[in-house]
From TrEMBL:
Keywords: Transferase
Alphabetized GO MF terms: methionyl-tRNA formyltransferase activity
Pfam families for the chain: Formyl_trans_C, Formyl_trans_N
Keyword Repeat: no
Sequence ranges assigned to domain Formyl transferase C-terminal in this UniProt record: 189-283
UniProt entry tagged with the keyword Transferase: yes
Gene Ontology CC annotations of this record: cytosol
Stated name of the protein: Methionyl-tRNA formyltransferase
Formyl transferase N-terminal domain ranges (all copies): 59-138
Length: 287
């Protein structure tokens, strides 16, 4: 019996993958929730379980029949089973991007590939032996919602691969190469704000990487807190007195902003109440 601790779209797709191999009698599901995203897919996961007569876990149930616990998008500590029976699925090509928000970090860096890795849990996060990986190419610009869709498909195929390996008694692991290890730090509300000293391409990746289902890229337009949802990279011009964040062109209330390198056009923007807004005066500054 597998216990699946799942959350989010990738959790739903992983559930589908394990279910396709093990059936509804081979799995039991714990459903996670996250109030910080637009949709945590908890209702979709619940519906899938009910439609397929898959049991959901509660603390009154015994753990004796559970051979493996699989954590996908799970944000809580699992300490009720032996650690070497926990398989963690992490959305990076480990050993790169151990830690937090690895997909966002990979997109911010403009990586050409993204992936998902299944590992055996250890006391130190994301350092355990690798069970299997799935990798996909990515091209830019790409919205985080589309990247999540891509990676969710990888989660499903990886889940099928892991479930089959365990069912066939052929589960093998490989030690991570510590010389290639990197870490991705936790992110908070301050990390949503745009750094206009970056290049236009980096700013576009930032806007695209923290949009829905996350809160969205943020800045101050003069003194007003704004959310920026869509931007376009514009070819740079020679500016004698370059001042980042200033409006250089304004047409039909659509502003083009000076960046550390290049220019960025703000195509879609909203205020803190979610109402669409435009730039009304030429002498405006973003910061």
């Amino acid at each position: 019996m597998f216990r699946l601790c799942v959350q989010g779209q990738k959790g739903l797709e992983s559930l589908k993958g394990f279910h396709s191999v093990l059936g509804n009698e081979g799995i039991i599901v714990s459903i996670g929730k996250d109030a910080n995203v637009v949709n945590d897919f908890s209702s979709e996961i619940q519906t899938y379980c009910e439609s397929n007569e898959i049991k959901t876990f509660d603390k009154s149930m015994g753990l004796e029949a559970i051979s493996y616990t699989v954590a996908v998008g799970w944000q809580r500590i699992i300490n009720d089973v032996p650690m070497d029976s926990i398989i963690v699925m992490h959305d990076s090509i480990l050993p790169r991007y151990r830690g937090f928000n690895p997909l966002v970090s990979a997109l911010l860096n403009g990586d050409e590939q993204v992936g998902v890795t299944a590992i055996i849990a250890e006391e130190t996060y994301d350092t355990g032996p690798i069970v299997a990986q799935e990798i996909a190419d990515v091209s830019y610009p790409i919205k985080i919602s589309n990247a999540i869709e891509l990676v969710s498909g990888l989660y499903k195929s990886l889940s099928v691969k892991v479930a089959n390996a365990i069912a066939d008694g052929k589960l093998t692991t490989s030690v991570q190469d510590e010389s290639k290890a990197t870490y991705s730090l936790w992110r908070d509300n301050e990390d949503y704000f745009i750094d206009f000293s970056l290049s236009a391409e980096q700013i576009q990746r930032h806007v695209n990487s923290v949009g829905a289902p996350y809160m969205g890229a943020q800045a101050y337009l003069n003194d007003e807190h704004v959310f920026i949802d869509e931007v376009e990279v514009v070819e740079d011009v020679h500016i004698e007195n370059r001042a980042i964040g200033k409006v250089i062109f304004l047409k039909d209330q659509i502003a083009t902003i000076v960046c550390g390198k290049g220019l960025i056009k703000i195509l879609s923007m909203r205020d803190s109440q979610g109402q669409a807004i435009r730039v009304n005066k030429f002498r405006s500054r973003f910061k």
